[in-house]
Amino acid sequence: MKKFAVCVMVFLAGVCFIAVLPGCGGEEKSMRESAVGNWTQSRNRAYILLITNPRGEWNSSVRITDATSKIVKAKGNAKGTWHIEKRQMIFTVSESDINEIWEPNSTLFFDIVELTGTSLLLKDEFGRTIIWNKTNRPATARNEESLNQIIPMGPIAVNLNKNRSNDKDRYLCLNMNMEIKELMPEEAIPSIHPRVREAAMIFLSSLVFDDVKDFDRIKDQTQNLVKVINPYMGGVVKDVSVEHVIVASEIEKVEEFFIEHTLTEKPGSEEGAQGEEGKDSKEKS
After folding, report:
1. Strands (E), 160-259
2. How far apart are CA 275 and CA 208, in angstroms?
3. Which of 40, 96, 149, 213 could bridge 102 with an S-S bond, Cβ 3.0-4.6 Å?
4. Residue 242 scores a pLDDT above 70
5. pLDDT over 70 at 261, yes or no
6. What is the CA 208 to chain-centroid distance, rounded?
7. At a CB cut-off of 8 Å and minimum separation 6, what does 201 contact?
């Protein structure tokens, strides 16, 4: 009888152990999914961007804002691999020229204090808490303070026009959203017409540097952009808001902009395809 009781206890313990394993794996899988995306961390007039993708790769860069808090310059970049294990987020740094944040050829361990759909709180080996905020937005989002719908347009880059042939090349890079007028309850949220991006790029590429050299002038141009794209959107666009803008003189900065503002959910995803389409269109502009 004693031997039978021992066998039963061993069997039950084994069943409990096996039942726990999927739970642990499921938690880590859920955390990995939540950790994928675009994250930012602000430090005075600088911010750090961290992009984590589902393949376990990450990219990071530092941006310095000017007095408008909109026009930014790159300070450095880093990349490597990441994974989550035992409630730790582990980063391996393969390349970096921002050593004060990502030391080259190092492996960094962070305890995950909190991980939600909008924020990531990590604690480093010195006990300091680092707060990252997610910048990803769903395809359509409802502003809680109004009934207006926000539809992301995605990153756009164009060659600016020139006043003189010997003026240097400049590229205008924007990440914008369309704010839709309040709709009736039975009205569906409109999808982006295929010609919207084309019309926007034709208009933006007609501008010269003086038209966009500060954020106030860019804001004025977005009012004109509303008039350009509204015929393709049935007149429902109320405003175009600019999330991020740079005016670059090097094509490498344009490529960086697209990398940072094109969300890649998985290889060959629709979002990734849009990013490549935008890059091709930009090169043709």
Report:
1. 171-180, 237-248
2. 24
3. 96
4. yes
5. yes
6. 28
7. 156, 158, 281, 282, 285
Packing angle, helices 270-284 and 195-205, rounded to 10: 40
Round to whole Å and give the CA distance between 281 and 156.
Answer: 9
Q: Residue holding tokens 């989550």?
A: 84
Give the torsion through C-alpha atoms of 61, 67, 68, 69, to 10 deg: 30
User: By the 8 A CB rule, do 102 and 86 touch?
Assistant: no
Q: Which of 47, 53, 41, 35 is nearest to 259 (CA)?
A: 53
Question: Which residue type is seen at 166?
Answer: N
225's enclosing H/E stretch is helix 215-229
The yes/no answer on whether domain 35-134 falls in CATH 2.40.128.280 is: yes
Q: How far apart are CA 215 and CA 245, in angstroms?
A: 9
Contact indicator for 53, 30 with CB cutoff of 8 Å:
no
Element containing residue 63 per DSSP (H, E): strand 57-65
Q: What is the mean pLDDT of the chain?
A: 76
Half-sphere exposure of 185 (CA within 13 A, CB side): 0
CA angle 18, 23, 24 (to 5 degrees): 95
Strands 149-159 and 119-123, by their bridges, are: unpaired
**CB atoms < 10 A from the CB of 124, how many?**
12
Q: Which residue has the tokens 């790159």?
A: 74
Asked if 156 contacts 201 with a C-beta cutoff of 8 angstroms, the reply is yes
More confident residue, 283 or 124: 124
Provide the Cα torsion 265, 65, 128, 117; round to 10°. -30
For the chain, count helices (H), then strands (E): 6, 12
Q: Given this model, what pLDDT does residue 201 score? A: 92
Structure confidence at residue 263 (pLDDT): 47
Is 93 in contact with 78 (CB distance < 8 Å)?
yes
CATH topology of domain 141-284: GTP Cyclohydrolase I, domain 2 (3.30.1130)
